[in-house]
Amino acid sequence: MTKIAESSLLGFPLRDLFDLNCWAATIPAPALDSRGVRVDDSELTAALSDLEAHIGSLIVTARCTNCSSPRMSELTDLISSPAARNETTDLANDLLDYVTQLMGGNFLQVQIDRVLNEAARKCPHSPNYNPDATPLVYEAFQAPDTSYSTAYLALLGALALALVIIVSLIVLVVKCIVRRRHRKWLIKLPPHQMKKLAYQQRSEVDKEDKLNITTSSMFRSPDIPRIVRFLIPIIIVSNVLFFLSGHLSLGATVNIEAEVAGEKFKIEKFFEFSMARSTVDIWKAGGRELAVIILIFSGIWPYTKLLMTLWLWFSSPSNVSISRRGSILLWLDWLAKWSM
Predict the structure, then answer these.
(1) pTM here?
(2) Is residue 19 part of a domain?
C-alpha cells in the first residue's frame, strides 16, 4: 500500500528514472520522533499490508561420496522418503509464516518510514537533495528499567514498617482488652476466692522457681533416658547437614547424548543447577520477591528453628525458665510447618 504525491510523480525527470531514492521520494515521508518511529498523528504513506508465501513441496536429497559414519546411507534414504518430504515442507512453511509475520509487523514498518525520510535527501532533483548527506542517526531504544529505585525500596520498607506497627497495635489492643476483662472479673470475686487465687499463683511461682533452681538442662536431666539425651543433638545436627547438602549440592545435571548417522556424540554438564544457584538466578532475572521468599522460608528459617531447638536442649533453667522454654518449643512446633 502506497500513497504517492501526484505533483512529484507528474514532474518526475527521466534522467532519474533508475534512481530508487527518487521513486521513494514521490511518497510523502511520515513524521518521525527522535528514535525514528512514526508519530501517532502522522499519516501512514507506505506499508506492507499483507504478505503470503507458501511452498507446495520441498524435496531434500543427499548423496554420500566419502563418508566415515557407518549409517550415512540410511540417513540419505530417510531424508528422501515421502514422510521426510512432508515434514520438511511443513517445517519450511512454518518458517515462511514466521518470516511473513515479521515482515508485516512493526519492525519492517519502522525501516520503511526511515527510508522514506532519507529518500528526498538522496534524490538529485529533490529540493532537499544533499550530495554530502550522511545517514540519519536516531536515538537507541531504552530497555525497560527493571532495577529497584531508592524510592521503591523506601516504599517497601515503609509498607513493612506499617504492617509491623499495625500488628503490634492489634496485639497491644487485645492485651489491654484481656487485662481489662480480667480486672473486672477479679473485682467481682468474693474475698475468700481472691485469697485462694493469690495463694495458687504464689504456689505456682514458687514451684517454678524451685524447679528452675533444682533442675538442669534437658541434655543433663536424669529424667530423660541417656540415649534420647544424646540422640536428639545428633539428629538436629544431622538435619542441619542435610539442609546444607541440599542447598549447596547440585540438584540436577543435564547431559546431552545424540546419535546422527551412527556417529555418537555427548555434551557433558550442558546445564547444572542447585538450590542456591537457582535462587541467585531468580534474583538476577527480576523475580526478587520470589527469591526473598525462598531465601527466608527455605534458607534462613529451617536453620533457625533447628539451632533454637538445639540451644534449648542444652540451656539450663537458670538461663531459660521452664515455662518460657515450653512456650518457645510450642511456638517452634507450630511455626516449623512454614519451612519449605
Answers:
(1) 0.47
(2) yes
